[in-house]
UniProtKB/TrEMBL annotation:
<dbReference type="InterPro" id="IPR000524">
    <property type="entry name" value="Tscrpt_reg_HTH_GntR"/>
</dbReference>
<protein>
    <submittedName>
        <fullName>Transcriptional regulator, GntR family</fullName>
    </submittedName>
</protein>
<keyword id="KW-0804">Transcription</keyword>
<dbReference type="InterPro" id="IPR011711">
    <property type="entry name" value="GntR_C"/>
</dbReference>
<keyword id="KW-0805">Transcription regulation</keyword>
<dbReference type="GO" id="GO:0003700">
    <property type="term" value="F:DNA-binding transcription factor activity"/>
</dbReference>
<dbReference type="InterPro" id="IPR036388">
    <property type="entry name" value="WH-like_DNA-bd_sf"/>
</dbReference>
<dbReference type="InterPro" id="IPR036390">
    <property type="entry name" value="WH_DNA-bd_sf"/>
</dbReference>
<feature type="domain" description="HTH gntR-type">
    <location>
        <begin position="12"/>
        <end position="79"/>
    </location>
</feature>
<keyword id="KW-0238">DNA-binding</keyword>
<dbReference type="InterPro" id="IPR008920">
    <property type="entry name" value="TF_FadR/GntR_C"/>
</dbReference>
<dbReference type="GO" id="GO:0003677">
    <property type="term" value="F:DNA binding"/>
</dbReference>
<dbReference type="Pfam" id="PF00392">
    <property type="entry name" value="GntR"/>
</dbReference>
<dbReference type="Pfam" id="PF07729">
    <property type="entry name" value="FCD"/>
</dbReference>
Length: 218
């Protein structure tokens, strides 16, 4: 039994490492929307077994980063206006409530949120999509996690991957300086204790992001 447990842990470790590598490549835009991948291709590229490749792909499918229909190849989803609308339908109420709670509790994570804003501002023009979006979403994640609710954090992380896919495209629409300015405006209002203004700014920020994303689709 101990030997079987050790073998199982080793297998899970390989699957996790493979899923992490594939996730980074998808979220960095190395796989274009609609591009496909197979267990055989992943197995050959990484030197892993096909069951391991299948398990890693299943992880990303669960996260919404890959899509697979019956008898078809796994592919990177092509987001639509409806997808964006639905994503922000889930995201906006959650983040607005997070902002309100943090201000009312006097628990604004100034240090973590400010670091994310600074990191975003200081990224070079040659930064990858992944680095840009990581700093962007880290600002939002720092606010969500500061609430201290495991369930809220879990719900947010469930849609974060799909948000990342959207934000890879948002970079081309909003621009870094606009996002930095809007993040700072939200944080300034929160730090001043003005819950109503902080909520207004966060809602405006997310509404602008939604509209910009939707403008990419016919």
């Amino acid at each position: 039994m101990p030997q079987d447990a050790a073998l199982q842990l080793a297998t899970v470790s390989v699957v996790d490492a493979l899923a992490r590598s594939l996730r980074e490549r998808v979220l960095d835009g190395q796989y274009a929307p609609g591009s496909t991948m197979t267990e055989a291709e992943i197995s050959a590229a990484y030197g892993v077994s096909r069951p391991t490749a299948r398990s890693a792909l299943a992880v990303l499918i669960h996260e919404g980063l890959l899509h697979r229909e019956a008898n078809k190849r796994t592919s990177v989803p092509r987001l639509s206006r409806e997808d964006v609308e639905d994503l922000f339908l889930a995201r906006t109420p959650l983040e607005v409530e997070v902002v309100r709670l943090l201000v009312e509790r006097g628990a604004v994570p100034v240090s973590a949120a400010s670091r994310a804003v600074t990191d975003l501002h200081e990224l070079g023009q040659d930064a990858t999509h992944g680095a840009f979006v990581e700093a962007d979403l880290r600002f939002h994640q720092s606010l969500v996690d500061a609430v201290g609710s495991p369930r809220i954090s879990r719900v947010y992380r469930m849609i974060r991957g799909e948000m990342h896919l959207c934000m890879v495209q948002t970079r081309q629409v909003l621009g870094r300086e606009r996002i930095v300015a809007e993040h700072r405006a939200v944080l300034d209002a929160m730090s001043s204790g003005d819950a109503a203004e902080a909520v207004r700014r966060m809602r405006a920020h997310l509404t602008g992001a939604r509209h910009s994303l939707q403008s990419l689709f016919p």
